[in-house]
Specification:
The structure holds two protein chains of two kinds. By secondary structure, chain A is an alpha/beta fold. In chain A, 22% of the residues lie in helices and 29% in strands. Chain A is elongated, with a radius of gyration of 24 Å. The model of chain A has no long low-confidence stretch (mean pLDDT 95). The longest helix of chain B is centred in the N-terminal third of the chain and has 7 residues. Helices cover 17% and strands 20% of the residues of chain B. The radius of gyration of chain B is 12 Å and the shape is globular. Classes of the chains: A alpha/beta, B alpha+beta.
């Protein structure tokens, strides 16, 4: 059990800056994110896209913004728990007991939900029949590539994951790559390589087809694909892999008894607390009159939520507002030597 | 302004007058028309405002897809050659009478 002042759910820009604000006012936090890297939507959806509306930063990419935020909270040495997801919250005498999917446990008076639009999950095949094989022979990520040796592997998708795995697995498996259109969004070098492998018959490349059904009797045997014009084909398959990018799902957050407005959580604008005492929501996931889904709004929300957390984490102390330019206490926390 | 018709997957029809300059996605959100999620808020960074333009004449009449739209559509639920991201369809008088069909789901 890790005892801390605050558990932040979501390591996107809003969560990171909230952590900074907590550090500045002398609180500790633990940050949980279900992606395997820090940065949230900035790093997952648009690492290379320039952002033009961060105050005093005329232009930076999602990745640069993330790296700068990480740099900014370095002095505080906060722990990140990546590839993990907060699954369960229980209230126990003004404390929240937090359990993650990987079995980590926290005890904290405060939870800050900075979860964006929810957690990123792989988009799955639309076909019901695929569910039966999910995690066994229908896969959306690869942990152990040796299971594919000498097997028939059918890969769907047109991005880098699909292309890279098609290339990689073509060495030791019978690979069929299927994509809904002729163009691929993967890196040009990979697209070139796929075309070569297809030309020399190392892989079967089928475009303008999508999945229709998976078939098997106990174990997966084949996959049926369809074209828009109504043709269909059946391909032998031991494994079917789908790489359609990630979608965002609210997930367990919906089960914590929080008021929800569509996929967002209503908060007050004084400290961004939700209807549950000690649970705050900031960034894209919160809503209030006039809410803007801007990163800068998330920063503001995080700063105020941090002060809200102070009240519950240090019930016997009075919060004192201080400037980073002037406060020697803050400079100590930042490790600044003058 | 243009009158846009949104048809849900279950066949329910919604019609709304959408001001010029808004996207077809924003038109749906502002009028509480279900079936379009728009998780990223119009940044062409997700694929949850996916619609079908089933009428071929309309599909051709719309401004062509910009770079990146088809890449996002690859990640949509059941994309087809009639698919567009509604955040990329900006309303003008020319869109009067446009009908968009929503997919079975967005995520």
């Amino acid at each position: 059990m890790i005892k801390t002042d605050v558990v932040i759910i979501g390591a996107g820009p809003t969560g990171l800056f909230c952590a900074h604000q907590l550090g500045i006012i002398g609180l500790k936090c633990e940050i949980v994110d279900n992606l395997d890297k820090i940065g949230g939507q900035c790093i997952e959806l648009y690492p290379d896209k320039p952002i033009y509306d961060i105050p005093a930063v005329p232009k930076c990419t999602g990745e640069e913004l993330t790296n700068n935020l990480i740099e900014q909270i370095k002095p505080f040495n906060f722990n990140f728990h990546l590839s993990d997801r907060v699954q369960e919250l229980k209230n126990d005498n003004n404390k929240w007991l937090v359990k993650t999917l990987n079995g980590k446990k926290f005890e904290t008076p405060n939870i800050v939900i900075a979860g964006g639009v929810g957690s990123f999950e792989p988009r799955k095949f639309p076909t019901k029949s695929a569910e039966k094989y999910d995690g066994k022979s229908v896969l959306y990520s690869i942990k152990d590539k040796t299971i594919f040796k000498d097997k028939s592997v059918v890969i769907f998708g047109g991005g880098d994951s699909a292309l890279d795995w098609a290339i990689e697995l073509s060495n030791s498996s019978k690979v069929t790559l299927i994509h809904r259109r002729d163009e691929f969004r993967g890196a040009p070098a990979s697209v070139q390589k796929i075309k070569e492998l297809s030309d020399n018959k190392t892989i079967d490349l089928i475009t303008k087809y999508s999945i229709k059904d998976v078939k098997g009797n106990g174990s997966l045997e084949s996959v049926e694909i369809k074209s828009e014009t109504g043709e269909s084909k059946v391909i032998k398959a031991d494994y079917v892999l789908g790489f359609f990018g990630l979608i965002m799902q609210l997930g367990p957050i919906a089960e914590w008894g929080l008021n929800l407005d569509k996929k967002t959580i209503p908060v007050n604008t004084e400290n961004f607390e939700t209807n549950k005492k000690g649970i705050f929501a900031i960034g894209d996931i919160c809503t209030y009159p006039g809410k803007l889904k801007l990163i800068l709004s998330g920063f503001h929300e995080g700063a105020l939520a941090a002060r809200g957390c102070f009240k519950y984490a240090r019930p016997d102390e009075k919060y004192r507002f201080e400037f980073t330019t002037a406060s020697s206490t803050i400079k100590d926390r930042l490790g600044v030597k003058e | 302004m243009a009158k846009i018709k949104y048809i849900e997957f279950n066949g329910t029809e919604h019609e709304a007058d959408i001001a010029n300059g808004l996207s077809v996605m924003e038109g749906a959100i502002q009028n509480d028309i279900p079936g379009i999620d728009a998780d990223c808020g119009g940044g062409m960074s997700c694929a949850t405002c996916h619609v079908y333009i089933n009428d071929d004449k309309w599909f051709k009449k719309l401004p062509e897809k910009e770079m990146g739209e088809d890449d996002m559509l690859d990640q949509a639920f059941e994309p087809s050659s009639k698919s567009r991201l509604s955040c990329q369809l900006i309303v003008s008088d020319d869109l009067e009478g446009l009908t968009v069909h929503m997919p079975e789901k967005q995520v």
